[in-house]
From TrEMBL:
Domain Secretion system C-terminal sorting positions: 470-538
Lineage: superkingdom: Bacteria
Annotated organism of origin: Williamwhitmania taraxaci
Record's signal peptide: 1-18
Record-given protein name: Por secretion system C-terminal sorting domain-containing protein
InterPro entries, A to Z: Secre_tail
Length: 539
């Protein structure tokens, strides 16, 4: 019987930057799920994880994964979750409608409770803005939660969409069939900071982005070309013309955007008082910006651009996308076997504990078993075996190895399964196998536990022969079994897995074993409280 615990397999690739700083690529997820919609704040990040028809919300707190929301309808396709420091917000279906939720680092609080769909939240610390849609009246509004109460910040005469927030600035799009414009809400009131006729054609809604200093958006010029607009104390139009513009990020007074040409090629651009074209290949999408660092993707690889150092490849897999960086960890998704997994880039100094990606036990007999472990990095595996009824040991006790039924250690290679033979066990007993891995920097993994039960020992006494008789043995197709009284039976394969079970009539019974593969098995009966086990061979 192979009992398996799967987490994820992580590996690392080292990079040396121009300033001599070593970085290591680490894989954070490797499971059956698709991981997407990354949001990063410093060294913390969140993402959605597909779980059949539902969605999980996952949180990386800087050292480990935490499942914040398990198997819920989170409207993940159109309503990304957002993180700001210790605060996280998302939209979750509750009683038929989407409601805004807030996690403060310890507890989850439901912010809204109404008959509307509250979606597309954004936050700055514990203050949230979101879009609220009333399907009955076909009305969309923008609401603001200031940490205590919620208010609507757009006029009732306008439809409002796409809110975003940074410190005391809130930007959103609002308008009607006559056109849409960009609004800025601060100091308790909202004002139009764009021109309806110039910014968006009738029925087109653009999405603003906001930093501590400015609001930026893509809009149309009088010549019906697209360019960048931004508002500090006044509204400015950047002297440029594109077929379309998509603002991807803003930081202080800097604007990162994607500009598309008439031939449908697109490149990454930076505006910081003047336009700098970052890429020229016609297929590069900018992702995020923080400080002087800009990250973009091209041909399935992530690149870092700085004005001082130009562009440098960060990854080389050809399957990397959606990089996100906000002053701490750089994170991105990698397409592996048609699903996305999460990777991060961290300092090469090893302060991260190894991860036991798999632990299992098989080859179980009456007195022996074989354990298997896999870790994400090289080191030493320590293990201990004790009766399942005994309190779990500490990592220090496992490493010491004293006082256990079986204990020891063995070297492990990164991502390579290590097998450990366990002997000296008792038949028909329940055990717990505990293991840890310690890397070269003395970082210790979490304890992994696998429970297993040894099979019942064969009885070869004369009494046993009289109580349980099997013929023919070896058998093929059918087998005759003779018991003294009616009895329950179970047939085990050599892994200890029950492959057939039922009841035997008093004296002789015929069992159909035609569906069992050739090999060695054990058949066990319980007759008047006596357990008898014998070996059965199938040809």
């Amino acid at each position: 019987m192979r009992i398996k615990t799967l987490l994820f397999i992580a590996f690392s690739i080292s990079y040396v930057f121009a300033n001599g700083q070593n970085k290591i690529e680490k894989q954070i997820t490797n499971d059956i799920y698709n991981d997407y919609q990354l949001s990063v704040s410093g060294n913390k990040m969140i993402w959605y994880q597909d779980s059949l028809e539902y969605t999980n919300l996952m949180y990386w707190d800087g050292s480990k994964k935490i499942k914040l929301v398990d198997k819920q309808d989170l409207k993940a396709d159109k309503s990304p979750a957002k993180i700001s420091g210790n605060y996280i917000t998302w939209a979750q279906k509750v009683n038929g409608n989407y409601e805004i939720m807030l996690y403060d680092g310890q507890t989850i609080k439901q912010i809204t409770s109404n008959d509307y769909d509250d979606i597309r939240p954004d936050l700055y610390e514990n203050r949230i803005v979101w879009q609220s849609y009333n399907a009955v009246t076909n009305k969309s509004n923008v609401l603001y939660y200031n940490g205590t109460t919620s208010i609507q910040i757009n006029s009732d005469t306008l439809q409002a969409y796409y809110p975003c927030i940074s410190k005391n600035k809130i930007a959103f799009t609002a308008g009607s069939t006559n056109g849409y414009g960009i609004f800025l809400y601060e100091n308790g009131s909202a004002k139009l900071i764009s021109n309806y006729s110039n910014d968006f054609s009738t029925g087109t809604k653009g999405e603003p982005m906001v930093s501590d200093n400015i609001v930026a958006w893509g809009g149309q010029t009088n010549e019906q070309k697209w360019t960048i607009f931004y508002h500090d104390n006044t509204t400015h139009q950047v002297d440029a013309a594109y077929s379309s513009v998509d603002v991807r990020d803003v930081y202080l007074n800097n604007i990162l955007f994607e500009g598309e040409n008439a031939d449908k090629s697109y490149n990454a651009f930076l505006y910081d008082g003047a336009i700098t074209q970052i890429t020229t290949d016609g297929e590069s999408g900018p992702n995020s910006m923080y400080g002087d660092s800009i990250y973009y993707e091209t041909s399935g690889n992530i690149f870092l651009y700085t004005k001082a150092g130009g562009s440098k490849a960060i990854t080389q897999s050809g399957n990397d996308y959606h990089s996100c960086y906000k002053g701490g960890v750089l994170a991105w998704t990698r397409d592996i076997n048609d699903k996305d997994d999460i990777f991060i880039l961290v300092d090469a100094q090893d302060i991260t504990a190894p991860i036991l990606s798999a632990a299992s036990v098989d080859g179980i007999t009456a007195t022996n078993a074989v354990a298997h472990i896999t870790a994400n990095e090289a080191g030493t595996a320590y293990y201990a075996v004790q009766l399942a009824s005994i309190t779990a040991p500490t990592a220090a006790a496992i490493k010491d190895g004293t006082g256990f039924l079986a204990a020891g250690n063995a070297p492990v290679t990164a991502t390579v399964e290590k097998s450990i033979n366990i002997a000296g066990l008792s038949f028909s007993s329940s055990y717990s196998f505990y293991t840890i891995v310690v890397d070269g920097a003395s970082n210790t993994s979490e304890i992994k536990k696998v429970e297993f039960t040894t099979i019942t020992s064969s009885i070869s006494s004369t009494a046993g022969e009289e109580i349980l008789t099997i013929w023919p043995n070896p058998a093929h197709g059918i087998v005759q079994i003779n018991v003294k009284v009616s009895a329950q039976y179970k047939i085990f394969n050599m892994l200890g897995i029950v492959v057939k079970s039922g009841y035997l009539d008093e004296h002789q019974s015929t069992l159909d074993i035609s569906n069992l593969a050739k090999g060695n098995y054990f058949i066990r009966t319980i007759q008047k409280g006596t357990t008898i086990t014998k070996k059965l061979m199938i040809e």
